[in-house]
Amino acid sequence: MRNTFAIAGREIQFYFVSPIVYVVTAAFLSVMSIFFAWYISDPRGIVATMQYLFGPMNTLFLFMIPMFTMRLLAEEQRSGTIELLLSSPVRDWELVLGKYLGVIVLILVILGLTLYYPFIMSRFGNPDFGPIVSGYLGLFLLAAAIASLGLLASSVTQNQIVAVVLGLGLAIFFWISEAIADFVGMPLGSVFSAVSLSPYLPDFTVGIVDMRNVIFYLTFVAVSLFLAVRSVESRRWR
Amino acid sequence: MIDAENISKRYGDFMALQGVSFHVGKGEVVGFLGPNGAGKTTTMRILTGFMPPTSGTAKIASHDVFFDSLEARRNIGYLPETVPLYTEMTVRGYLDYMAKLRGVKKRTEPVRSALEAAHLSDRADTVIGKLSKGYRQRVGLAQALVHDPEVLILDEPTIGLDPKQILEVRELIRELGKDHTVILSTHILPEVSQICSRVIIINEGRIVAEDTPEHLSLLVGGGERLHLEVAVPSAEIPALLVRVPHVLGVEPGRRRGTYEVECAPGMDCRVEIARQVVSHDWGLLEMRPLSASLEEIFLKLTTD
Fold first, then answer.
1. B45 CB near a chain A CB, below 8 Å?
2. Which of A93, B71, B189, B215 is the most exposed place for a label (fewest CB within 10 A)?
3. Does A229 have pLDDT greater than 90?
4. ipTM of this model?
5. Which domain holds residue A33?
6. pTM of the model
7. B38 falls in which pLDDT band (50, 70, 90)?
8. Which of B63, B65, B101 to mutate to test the interface with A (most CBs of A within 10 A)?
């Protein structure tokens, strides 16, 4: 496990000096702030809830997170540093988990940066914190799932562009898979519907934490990471 | 320390390695020589546990690189051919990270001594991206040393360096050879005769020779050869010298006035040749023995 933390530590260190991270985060916060300002400036007054903000954050994450994950493994593979990693006494799963942990920490930091929305609301109103907490939980789980797809995408290529496009493609696919389930006809349609990432967020945002949904997200992450580890392992055989 | 038994590696239809077997004992510095594409890097990657062989076994410090991979890797310091580095980290930060990944708990001292061994102490806090190739190579070498492994596997450690840097790296490897087991691959022949106690020559995936540089030289050299230089070259010199007893052949050398004289094994033709040169007034400038250079051994073994 020590190796996992070492690798995560290095990724976090890298994120701190990475221009892409700053630019994308700044763009995200700017767009969200516009939403937020527009939302709370309704002259009729609003209910102090974050409910309608989680939706846009969600959509933005869908596009943002693959940009953070694209280099995690692809760059190591391109530059050859993967050769040193795989010939060090580090297990393949420690490597993948360490990389994943790195991007999770980044996601937590970004979520932390949005906490000033509920903070401002609490200054002017009386928001119900329960749904806010559960909403953030739902958002975090969703982000974790997208990140795991992004990491998987990064593990199969040396090219960061391929990694980001693939990551984005996978994220969008699992996002809309419920909606397109009807088009796909029955047996496949129910599979599509079952693996979709989208249906659960609304519940989280109103305060419903259904453990089944939590487990779904965690399972989703576990499967993606498992596949990513296999992908790294397969590098050795080529 | 390094035991390779009958290693084969196949990529699709292409056999990169066939039946490669060799052993490197503790404290030896062995050179792994071969033309490009012979299988040197593939062999090294198998030894480091990076990739598995198609068949055969390899052991490092008695740990099988496939079945006991993690333990085997703990004993290895590897410098890949491409010297991959994290260019955004400082030298010290990078070495610290590498040491962490290899399980070194207290890292300040090992990092400091690796920096010193690789002559990087004055660049310790420079970002790797800003270093020249020579320095980067040394960082690569330092990361292979930082956890004080038993075995060092160096893939072309002096490639791309300038002559001064090459000398420094060779000196470093010689130093390291005193308390580490080293296997280094190269196609720079003088390097091998200077640093290595033994040479393994590989060609097209197979080992074609394995011995000390001196023995190999005898193996391929055949007889004794002399380098002769005269002041007054003449076309008749080869024809006349060949008649000297025990002289097998006389070839003109690269420069005008030089010749290579091949003498029968065990015979010393020098006295008679000197006498001939002087009596014909060709002007004896230089006469010295030549052993088969590693170049010749190499070419001979790899081109038939």
1. yes
2. B215
3. yes
4. 0.87
5. 2-235
6. 0.83
7. confident
8. B101
